[in-house]
Amino acid sequence: MAIIGARIDNRLLHGIVATSWAPDSGATRVMVIDDDVANDPQKKQAMKLGRPSGMAVSIITKETALTNFSNHKYDRQKVFIISQTPDVFLNLLEQGEKIDKLVLGGTLTFDNAIKVTKRAYIKPEQVDIYRAILDRGCKIVSQYVPQDDSVDVAKILNTKKAGA
């Protein structure tokens, strides 16, 4: 089964993810893919405190995640992945993993960023990564909480392309 949920969120594993996104997905494992947190024992331990009830938690580097997926470590699990950046998801897609939908949640604001919603922005240098994800058949929507209406990120990127 493997990847059943994918989210970009600058806060990684936090309340909304632990109480809504991960449980609603039916995941058995929440995976935070972030080199900084994975390599910092204090940050890693603090983040593990946010573990959703009844789910395993992995906080690993991008390299470890790519290796583990290519070795089929999670084939019998339902994995919900959270990362701060889209490149993680593109790398997974490039190595043959299936991700049906990527949810762009909360991000930081950036200079010259493309505003997707009041809580989600795309850096100009990430536009090609998002387009490559779309080209691999993965739908990208922006939603902060599951109850929000979803915003089709492809439409926003296509608008920006036309206006560029």
UniProtKB/TrEMBL annotation:
Alphabetized InterPro entries for the sequence: PTS_IIB_sorbose-sp, PTS_IIB_sorbose-sp_sf
Protein keywords: Cytoplasm, Kinase, Phosphotransferase system, Sugar transport, Transferase, Transport
Cytoplasm in keyword set: yes
Record Pfam families: PTSIIB_sorb
Compartment list: Cytoplasm
PTS EIIB type-4 domain segment(s): 1-164
Listed name of the protein: PTS mannose/fructose/sorbose transporter subunit IIB
Native source organism of the sequence: Lactobacillus melliventris
Source organism phylogeny: Bacteria, Bacillati, Bacillota, Bacilli, Lactobacillales
